[in-house]
Structure formats: C-alpha cells, structure tokens
C-alpha cells in the first residue's frame, strides 16, 4: 500500500536548508508525513509491537528497539525514499547510497526510574575511534520519523547539541554510570506526529528517558555510501513476496544485488558503474544530478 503522491515534484535541498544543516548538524522537517500516513505506519508498528511483546521480545520495561526496519515490517518501505525527506539524503551524500542501518522504536512510559547512564554519543561506533581525521568525516546521515507527539519535552525526546557535529569529543565521565553535567548547549528536539528529523551522524545526541504518559514511537533510517557495510540483514526480505513490488531505488537502498547476468561484472558498491545504480538513473532522468558527485572511473 502506498499513500504517497508519486506525481509530486522532487527538488534538492534548498540553500537555506543546507546552510542550517551545515551549521547545526540537523533539520526538522515539519509535516513530512500526512495524518493518513501517520495513522497507517502507527497501526503497522503497533501490530508488530504486540507480536514482539507476545513473543517476549521486548525489554523488561516494555521497550522495543527492532533492527532491520523494512525486513521486520515491509509496510514501512515507502518511508525509505519518501519525497518529503529523501532529497535531503542524496543532496548531502549523492546518488551512490544505501540504508546500512535502521530500526523501529516503541518506548512506553517508564514507571520506575532507571539507573543513571551517560548516553551521549555520535553514531558510527568504531569509526569514531579509528578514523584519524579532524573533524571526522560525515560518512552517514539519518532520518527519524516521529509517529508520537513529542512536541513537548520530557517525552523521550531526541536530545542534541546543535553544531556539535564538527567536534570529535564532548566532556564526559570516566564511566557511564557516574553522574555528569549535560553538555553545554544541549536541547531536546520537539516534533509533532508526522514530523521528521534529518541529522548528521556526527551530531552528539542521546535519547532521553520517557516518564510522560505518551508512548514514544519512531522509525529510523540511516544512509551511507554503498561501500560501507550494512548492519541490516535483508536476505529473507529479498525472498519475501512483498519484495516484487519494491521499486528499483527501494531495492538499491535495501542492499539488493542490482546488476544482472551479462552486464558489468557485479554490482559495484563503490559507484564505478552508475548504470547499475537506480538512483543515479532517476536523478539523471530528472535533471537532478549534482556535478560534485561524478562517477568514478573503473
């Protein structure tokens, strides 16, 4: 099922958006999803959550953090290249991209206070220890779709330090269980149901605890260049009957093999052969290719 108007015009990130993103490390996209989309994806997420809860696959507090979003819930596939958010991805990273990590989150009200833990981090894991340049390269970006109302603070909001994506470190405790002051300038990002947050993986951020009476629900997709290794395990998805209806661009983003027998030798994730990359073809056909992302010579 699709609720998206595929005839709508698609345009790159605006100059104002780019300036804000480069300055702050994130953008809020108000009304990225319609009310009908919010209802549809909330219903789908709720069904999965009940299945996981019945199977004992949620945390003791009732929280669910389910990886491989589309493989776990094929109904969310249209979010991965949504026209209201996806242009931000290829405007920043270019056309040789895929989703290397995604998750479905449900965080009910916390009834008993949790032990303190300093959770501030940059996305990327080991790359933040092993890449020697300063500041570290961007490498990936992420979209968070909000299905619950986090328009007020204290609802498990996404918390960030604007502009911190250009800082390789923030002050923190020697051990995560030691209470420590919040980073200077930290704010909770507020959003309405249907809003999206697009952010640089280097942005220092954390998920706050949800002590409100609202269950926090969100769907997250992280995009990187296709030469980065994927965390999602989508082999079973490629055999799923729903996969036949996915578009070429959606298949690219989910890491499916694209080149067919008799074409160039394999689908080169480094972007050597743009003709095997559906998003390159889409942007070329619509006059949207950014000349700063030329193909590599094989």
Structure in a nutshell:
It comes from Kitasatospora acidiphila. It is built from 8 helices and 9 strands.
Beta-strand portion reads 15-25%
H-E order = HEHEHHEHEEEEEEHHH
Radius of gyration: 19 Å
Largest β sheet strand count, sense and barrel closure: 6 strands, antiparallel
What is the name of the CATH topology?
Answer: Jelly Rolls
* Major beta sheet, strand line-up: 1-7-4-9-3-2
Give the mean pLDDT.
92
> Which stretches are low in confidence, meaning pLDDT under 50 for 5 or more residues running?
none
Number of helices: 8
Number of domains: 1
The level-1 CATH class: Mainly Beta
Corresponding CATH superfamily: q2cbj1_9rhob like domain
The structure class reads: alpha+beta
The CATH level-2 architecture is identified as Sandwich
Number of strands: 9
Percentage of residues assigned to helices: 10-25%
Shape: globular
Distance between the termini: 39 Å
Pfam families: PhyH (PF05721)
Protein name: Phytanoyl-CoA dioxygenase family protein
GO molecular function: 2-oxoglutarate-dependent dioxygenase activity; iron ion binding
Keywords: Dioxygenase, Oxidoreductase
Furnish the topology, listing elements before pairings.
Blueprint: H1 15-24, E1 26-29, H2 35-54, E2 64-67, H3 69-72, H4 86-93, E3 97-107, H5 127-130, E4 140-146, E5 158-160, E6 187-189, E7 196-200, E8 205-207, E9 216-225, H6 235-238, H7 248-253, H8 278-285
Antiparallel strand pairs: 1-7, 2-3, 3-9, 4-7, 4-9, 5-6, 5-8
């Amino acid at each position: 099922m699709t609720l998206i108007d595929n005839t709508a015009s698609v345009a790159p990130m605006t100059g104002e958006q780019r300036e804000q993103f480069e300055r702050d490390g994130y953008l809020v996209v108000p009304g990225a999803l319609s009310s009908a989309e919010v209802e549809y994806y909330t219903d789908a997420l709720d069904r999965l959550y009940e299945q996981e809860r019945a199977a004992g696959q949620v945390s003791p507090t009732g929280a669910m953090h389910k990886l491989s979003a589309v493989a776990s819930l094929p109904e969310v596939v249209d979010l991965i290249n949504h026209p209201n958010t996806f242009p931000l991805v290829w405007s920043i990273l270019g056309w040789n991209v895929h989703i290397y990590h995604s998750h479905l989150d449900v965080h009910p009200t916390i009834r008993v206070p949790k032990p303190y833990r300093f959770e501030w981090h940059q996305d990327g894991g080991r790359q933040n220890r092993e890449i020697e340049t300063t500041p570290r390269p961007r490498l990936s970006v992420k979209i968070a779709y909000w299905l619950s109302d986090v328009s007020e603070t204290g609802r498990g909001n996404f918390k960030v330090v604007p502009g911190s994506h250009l800082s390789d470190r923030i002050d923190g405790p020697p051990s995560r269980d030691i209470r420590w002051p919040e980073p200077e300038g930290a704010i909770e990002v507020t959003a309405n149901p249907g809003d999206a947050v697009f952010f640089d993986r280097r942005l220092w951020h954390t998920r706050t605890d949800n002590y409100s009476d609202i269950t926090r629900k969100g769907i997250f997709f992280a995009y990187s260049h296709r030469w980065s290794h994927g965390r999602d395990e989508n082999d079973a998805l490629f055999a799923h009957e729903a996969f036949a209806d996915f578009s070429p661009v959606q298949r690219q983003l989910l890491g499916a093999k694209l080149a067919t027998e008799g074409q160039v030798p394999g689908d080169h994730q480094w972007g050597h052969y743009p003709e095997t990359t559906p998003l390159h073809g889409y942007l070329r056909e619509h006059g949207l290719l950014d000349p700063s992302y030329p193909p590599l010579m094989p």
